[in-house]
Amino acid sequence: MTVSPFDTVAAVSTPYGKGGVAVIRLSGDQALTVAERIFFPLGGKKLTEHPSRTAVYGLVRDPEDDRVLDDALCTTFRGPHSFTGEDTAEIACHGGVLVTRNILEACLRAGARQALAGEFTRRAYLNGKLDLERAEALGNLLDAGNDEQVKLARAGMNGLLTSSAEAVYSDLMAVLANMEAGMDFPEEDLTEMPLWEIREAIDRAEAALKGLVETYRTGHAIAEGIPTVICGRPNVGKSAFYNRLVGREAAIVTDIAGTTRDVLTDTVSLGRVTLRLSDTAGLRESDDPVEMIGVKRAKQAMDEAELVLILSESSGPDSEADELAETLSGQGKTVLRVYTKGDLAMMAPIPDGAVCVSSVTGEGFDALREAVERAFIDGNLRMGEEAVVFSARQAAALRETAANLHAAAENLDAGLPYDICADDIRAAMSELGSLCGREMGEDVLTEIFSRFCVGK
Ligand code: GDP
């Protein structure tokens, strides 16, 4: 099948399965024509004689043998006033698996092509209905597993990050225009902005970008989740702790040392943050080949971790854990000391900043949640009112833009010619443009939109 972005496409936009209602969406130049071939309003008027955005009741018929497939409601949207920006028809039918499939197949026989994963959203983006921030936020909204993720995704759909980036973009545009005027007509002294003003504008832009990048720690912790490792001596209570966090019996709890041989992973909501949790084998050398694999994977998980929960028993000192905490903090990881078995008699004093938990009674887990939130969530950030960076792509584009501006400032300070600095600024603007989706490569678009499933 050759696929063209100009095809009229169709897909079931509701989840697969039995439900009260299912929606089949058609989008493209021929969407209304295709809909008219299969949908027949009661009352005699043709579908397109009814006003847009009004649900019309009628029968869905197979275009080949005219048999009635269902009675349904059809709503039409004339482009550009639709989600995709194209002509669109949405047929809300009875939500049976077979009924829905029959109607979709009728749409395909009447001239539509099956939509690819994320194709409706991609078309909305290409038609300027949705910028990349909103598209990514929409993906996050559909994937959201907790209220905080919903809140962040809804904030992203307001496009605050794009607005902030656009503001910096137009400031840089002004700087560039001034520099170029000076370059093209040096003898005329056309540069309206003196050098110090250009320099200040660059600093301001760089500071604004860095401010945005700082919000990524919070956005990342909520939207993407923090890669987290739990470690500690054998039998310290890692599996029991992991199970308490995850809320089910995912790891096998035993009192035989070295029984957790693999790295389990789970995504867990802990208050406002999401943890991508690895429960690692006790980090110790072993002769057992199976356990060695576990240890190797554990080391890899540790390398990738941003948060390390180091578990120690409450009943005595743990110099190994002290050392590990120091090393990992030195590597820039966030380390949280957790003392286990808090329901048993305690002998070791709990250091400042550490939490004491019991995986048996659940005590201490609120304090754990607060400690993790404190470490990752910027309490001053007003979600929904301020831009929050919530994807690695956005953060990378902003960091790259800031780096280009930094180079521009350094080159200006070093007295290099304007055209070299102008190149740095152009590079910065191109990066910033990619953040807003101005000049986006096909591969990046595919990567973003393939996250969506068919029908979205
Ligand atoms: P791991 O080897 O670090 O994964 O440790 P486990 O989670 O398998 O626990 C080792 C032993 O300690 C088991 O017998 C658990 O029942 C016990 N244990 C774990 N957590 C607690 C706790 O919070 N309180 C008490 N009383 N016992 C615990």
Count of DSSP helices? 15
How would a textbook summarize the main sheet? Answer: 7 strands, mixed
**What class, by secondary structure content?**
alpha/beta
The stretches of 5 or more residues where confidence is low (pLDDT under 50) are none
State the strand order across the main sheet. Answer: 3-4-5-6-2-1-7
Q: Report helical residue fraction.
A: 40-55%
Mean pLDDT across the residues is: 86
Q: What best-fitting shape do the alpha-carbon axes yield?
A: flat
Radius of gyration: 28 Å
**Element order, helices and strands?**
EEHEEEEHEHHHHHHEHEEHEHEEHHHH
Q: Give the strand content.
A: 15-25%
- Strand tally, please? 13
Q: Give the termini distance in whole angstroms.
A: 21 Å
Ligand kinds: guanosine-5'-diphosphate
Structural summary, described in words:
- The model has no long low-confidence stretch (mean pLDDT 86).
- Strands 3-4-5-6-2-1-7 form a seven-stranded mixed sheet. The chain has a six-stranded mixed sheet with strand order 9-10-8-11-12-13, with helices on both faces.
- It has 15 helices and 13 strands.
- α4 packs antiparallel against α5, α6 (160-184) packs antiparallel against α14 (418-436) and α13 packs antiparallel against α14.
- 45% of the residues lie in helices and 17% in strands.
- The protein has 456 residues and is of the alpha/beta class.
- Residues 234-240, 253-255, 260, 340-341, 343-344, 358-360 line the site of guanosine-5'-diphosphate.
